[in-house]
Sequence to fold (187 residues):
Amino acid sequence: MDTNRLEAFYDAIIAIIVTVLVLELPQPASPSLAAIWALKTNYFAYFISFLVCANLWQYHHLIYNHVEKINSKIIWLNILLMLVFSLIPYITTFVANNPYSLIPQVLYGLDFILVDLILAIMSKSLLELNKDNENILRDVMSITSALKIPLVIFVIAFIIALLGYPIVISICCLITVIRSIHDSLRS
Fold:
């Protein structure tokens, strides 16, 4: 199967997610800097989630520039990826409203972990299906850098969160995204 329709679907879903993210930002209570500052956790959560959307969109396109074949399994993995990823606006609002609570932070981190796990499965399936481009795809996907390192960072964040510092999960989400963007700019 050709990848064009899958990529167009993916682009549309990411555009919708980003739009919903910004629409979920509350308006300041008054037109003052103090009212804007009062929403700092909302802006921080939005910023992280927006960067995650941009990063995932860029990573997906980087991969699919080198993919020649897909099958039903790849399509369903992408649909599952979008299902999990489409929760980002909901969980972002939950985290923004409860930045120091464990449950919202854990859900936020778990969503990121599920995205990484689905990407790892999809990467393996794409490598099996596109043996002609396997070396290029292996370099582009950089599974260790893109998927395994963030997983280790999230495990560390969960341990620290359980010790009483739940906001560390959001901070680790930001660290993994910045790290990933930095890696993509270097290549």
